Amino acid sequence: MAVREVLRLGDPRLREVASPVGDPTAPAVAALISDLRDTMAARHGAGLAAPQIGVPLRVVIFGITRNPRYPEAPPIPETVLINPLITPLGKGRGLGWEGCLSVPGLRGAVPRWEHIRYTALDPRGCRVEVEAEGFHARVVQHECDHLDGLLFPDRLEDPRQLGYTEELQAAGLIP
After folding, report:
1. Mind listing the pLDDT tens digit for each residue in 82-94?
2. Does 167 qualify as catalytic in the annotation?
């Protein structure tokens, strides 16, 4: 439907906790999902949450085939989650470099659960339950953080592991 403006770090709307969606099949939710899809594609995102386009609802979209921002990432099927919940499986956490459309130009090494289960509703109102690992799990956690007003810099354990993408690439830290 439309490519929307992506809010950037500093906009107070990114710090709000999003509200649950009452009816995932509502036409307004379908229009929101279409806008999220268009905006994510236009910005070469791996995922996007509704709060990032100024809509305080618990809706995320993610998925990639090839992505210039994450050239080594494996494909993830496009997925829409409404009112998602994440459950860590196991105690393993891994450090990985993340970027964000709301924090353009920067990347940070963020600890995330390596293995998770997520549950949600899909756009038809059907329950979804998936186990994910690796980059897939990282993307889901990153996008769901936006629903609670969190951005990846909030998760950094070491602020020295935050930098501009070009400098990190020149240093050989990210592809």
Report:
1. 999 999 999 999 9
2. no
